[in-house]
Structures are given as C-alpha cells and as structure tokens.
Amino acid sequence: MLSLLYQEGPSTEGIFRRSGSAKTCKELKEKLDSGAEVDLACESIFVTASLFKDFLRNIPGSILSSQLCDKWVSVMDQGNNEEKIKSIQRLIEQLPRANVVLLRYIFGVLHGIEMRSKENQMNAFNLAICIAPSLLWPPVSSTPDIESEFTKKISSLVQFLTENCCRIFGEEITSLFGEI
C-alpha cells in the first residue's frame, strides 16, 4: 500500500482528500482481512489511500499511542522548532519499534507528496488535515468542542512532522522506498 502511495501519490491531485469507492473499499478490506491475495495496483489510488487510512484507524491505541496523547498534544505548545523536534524524538523513542518503522514510511510518503504539492494540491497542511485523525485519537471520547480542538492540535503536529520529517527521522527517509 505504502509503496503504491509513494509512487502514485505525488502525482495525484487530492490524494488522501478524495475517498475511494465505499463498496470497493469494503470488499477489498474483507479480502485483505481474510488473507486473500489483492492487487491494489489494479484499483484506484484513492481506494488504496482510503484503505490505508482505515488500516491506521484500526491500530489499537493508535500508531502514536493514545497513552502518550497528552504529550503529543503539548508538543506544539513548546518553544522553538529545535525544542519541538527534540520532544518529538523523545516521544518516538517511547513507541513500539513496529510503530516507529511504520511512521518512518508514512512520513516518507507524505514528504514525497508534499514535495510535489504544486502538482497535487496537497501541501503539509492539507495532508495533515486528511491524515492526522488516523494517526492519533484521545483515549476517551469527549465533547464535540474538545474533539474539534484536539483535531486542530494533532493536525498542527502532523503538519510539523511532515515539514520536518528529515530532521526528525533522518535524511534517509527520502530513500526508504529505493528507486521504484
């Protein structure tokens, strides 16, 4: 999925913003969940993006860990960019290894898409609005006003992560997928 998004996302206008066919997504999810072979290259890239966001939303406790939710939310209230980056790196160290590996690939994809934002209309802000709710959610539900404020803060965090991913995860993030 990520490889396909890495290849096609940068040249696809509105990637992560437009939804794939709900029926197709449901059918493919059922196939994937059953372990059946699925060729996503034959599907719309919007279906792949929708399936990927659904996959992220189904990670128990979220990929960024709902247990660290308050700490993630407070990162953007810190001083300068260096302090934010150091705080983010400390939080990343607290995540399970599998989450960190997946995050590196996710932000490798988002970085590639952002680099061609003039073509695809998906700058770091737009990407964050679309993907942030799939990366972290509060451990308990709350009022719509509190959830709206939370979503804004997490979107701001994801935008910052996207814009600074090379400094946070290392320059090699740009070559994780090799020469595809």
Automatic annotation (TrEMBL):
It comes from the Eukaryota. The keyword Phosphoprotein applies. Residues 1-169 form the Rho-GAP domain. One of its GO terms (biological process) is signal transduction. Keywords: GTPase activation, Phosphoprotein. CDD domains: RhoGAP_ARHGAP20. This is Rho GTPase-activating protein 20. It comes from Nipponia nippon.
